[in-house]
Each structure stands twice: as structure tokens, then as C-alpha cells.
């Protein structure tokens, strides 16, 4: 310190203080990883336990995941029971990281007797995700609070524009015709927000296959209600959906992205692109 002060007094330039290292963030799945990158920018280094096109409902953590959690400064999870395997992983890792629940403050919807964790399919609720993440990152990096807030505002504006676009397009479809069939009950928040009825052979989780009786009942319902929009999902085998659509005389539309982003070369490599892709696929199936 004495040497530094003497140099300054002699007119020698002082080197700028080094920028802090990026905050090490581990997220539970790919959609949260993208949100953290959008809000944190260069101030975060983000990894995800469950990657693109992978099903977080049935994920099995590895020893590498234990090490990754242990090395993180912040761990971001969805909550609402989405990551049923996570508590054991946190305990096994011995992590001292701050754990951020992205759905904090969001009132969950119920799918039958189960809590539906898929709140990211409502653009308005995604804005709540962003606010929660911005607050957590600013707490961990107080010196970057203003930059984080600005990035969060910019991203929130883009979400609001996406929300307005889907509402405008769907307004041209009569409410009674807005029926969609998907692989599992992942789009309930989308349906509640935008006035679309979703049917599926599975509940909000993907761990159980539907019975033959369930499939037969759904085929009858699709025929009776003249459901026009039938979709497979990126995290599930499409064969069951294709069979149901074939027996019901329906056409399978573009694949929807439910619980994971696509890879970089796919149509939904970011959360905003996932939302836009799904909305466009559904609207196109409705003819708007």
C-alpha cells in the first residue's frame, strides 16, 4: 500500500480495480439458465443441471451435478414441486450457495389435486420470475445493481410485447374453438392466461404412462369436441400423440417446447423464442 501511495504522489497512473469475477450460478433446468443470462449478462457464469430437450421431471442427478452445486455461489430453482430430486442433491453437495426460488410469490394453479409448476408459460408470470432473479443477482453483486435492473426492465418490456402479440392473434379465434391437445399437462398457465383449453393424456408430471382406457377416452373427446390442434412436445416421445391424433382423425402440428429449451440450432434456444414458437404454432393451427 505504501508503494502504491508513493507512486500516486509521484504522478504515476494507478491501475483500475479489477472487475469482480462473474457470479457462479447453477440453475435446475435450461429455461431458468436463459433467464439468468438475460438478467445478469456478463456478470454471471451460468450452468444448468438439466439441459436442452431434457425432461426435468424424471431427471437423475449425477456425481458431476453434486460437484457443480457445491461450487456454485447461487442456485436457482423453479419450485412448486418441479424438481422433486433437488432437495437430496442440495443436501448431498453440502453447498453454501444462496438458493433462489424463481416462482416465489406466484400463486400456483392446480391440475387436479397436483400443483402445476409450469408458470413460465404465462408471459405475465415470467415477468415475476425476472423480478425475483434481478433482486437475487443484485443482492449477490450490489455494485451491479443498476445494470441488472436495466437489463431486467429491457427483458420485461420484450415479455410484455410477446404477451400483447399472442393476445391479439388469439382474439381472432372464437373462444369455444380454442382447444389444444398436448403430451402432458404443461400448458395450463398458458391456457388460463390466453383463454385456451388444453387436453393431455398425462398430468403435470411425466413419470406415468396413460392407460389404454385413458387413451380411448381422449380419442373420443377429441372427436366429440373437434379438437384441431394436436401437438407433441420436445421432451416426450411423439409416438403416443401421433397414435391418438391418427385415431381421432386429427393432424399433429409443430412440436411444442414445454419444459426445456431446444438446442442452439433449434427453434426455441431462448425463453423468449420458446414462448414465441409455441404461440405461433398454436395460432397457426387455429388459422390465425
UniProtKB/TrEMBL annotation:
Keywords, comma-separated and alphabetical: Metal-binding, Signal, Transport
Compartments in which it is found: Cell envelope
Pfam families reported for this sequence: ZnuA
Matches recorded under InterPro entries: AdhesinB, Bact_metal-bind_prot9, Lipoprotein_PsaA-like, ZnuA-like
Annotated signal peptide: 1-21
Chief place of localization: other
The keyword Zinc appears for this protein: no
Gene3D superfamilies with a match to the protein in the record: Nitrogenase molybdenum iron protein domain (3.40.50.1980)
PANTHER family: HIGH-AFFINITY ZINC UPTAKE SYSTEM PROTEIN ZNUA-RELATED, METAL-BINDING PROTEIN HI_0362-RELATED
Protein family (similarity comment): Belongs to the bacterial solute-binding protein 9 family.
Protein's UniProt name: Metal ABC transporter solute-binding protein, Zn/Mn family
Amino acid at each position: 500500500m505504501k508503494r502504491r501511495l508513493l507512486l500516486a504522489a509521484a504522478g504515476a497512473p494507478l491501475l483500475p480495480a479489477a472487475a469482480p469475477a462473474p457470479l457462479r450460478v447453477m440453475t435446475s433446468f435450461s429455461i431458468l439458465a436463459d433467464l439468468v443470462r438475460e438478467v445478469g449478462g456478463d456478470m454471471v457464469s451460468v450452468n444448468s443441471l438439466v439441459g436442452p430437450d431434457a425432461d426435468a421431471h424424471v431427471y437423475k442427478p449425477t456425481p458431476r451435478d453434486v460437484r457443480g452445486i457445491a461450487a456454485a455461489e447461487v442456485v436457482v430453482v423453479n419450485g412448486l414441486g418441479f424438481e422433486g430430486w433437488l432437495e437430496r442433491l442440495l443436501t448431498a453437495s453440502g453447498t453454501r450457495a444462496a438458493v433462489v426460488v424463481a416462482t416465489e410469490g406466484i400463486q400456483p394453479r392446480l391440475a387436479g389435486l397436483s400443483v402445476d409448476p409450469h408458470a413460465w408459460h404465462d408471459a405475465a408470470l415470467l415477468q415475476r420470475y425476472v423480478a425475483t432473479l434481478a433482486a437475487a443477482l443484485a443482492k449477490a453483486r450490489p455494485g451491479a445493481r443498476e445494470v441488472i435492473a436495466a437489463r431486467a426492465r429491457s427483458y420485461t418490456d420484450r415479455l410484455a410485447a410477446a404477451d400483447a402479440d399472442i393476445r391479439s392473434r388469439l382474439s381472432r379465434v372464437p373462444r369455444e374453438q380454442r382447444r389444444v391437445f398436448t403430451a402432458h399437462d404443461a400448458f395450463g398457465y398458458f391456457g388460463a392466461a390466453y383463454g385456451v383449453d388444453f387436453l393431455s393424456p398425462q398430468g403435470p408430471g411425466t413419470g406415468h404412462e396413460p392407460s389404454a382406457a385413458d387413451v380411448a377416452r381422449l380419442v373420443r373427446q377429441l372427436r366429440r369436441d373437434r379438437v384441431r390442434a394436436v401437438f407433441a412436445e420436445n421432451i416426450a416421445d411423439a409416438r403416443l400423440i401421433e397414435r391418438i391424433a391418427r385415431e381421432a382423425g386429427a393432424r399433429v402440428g409443430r412440436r411444442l417446447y414445454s419444459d426445456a429449451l431446444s438446442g442452439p440450432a433449434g427453434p426455441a434456444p431462448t425463453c423468449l423464442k420458446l414462448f414465441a414458437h409455441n404461440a405461433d404454432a398454436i395460432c397457426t393451427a387455429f388459422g390465425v
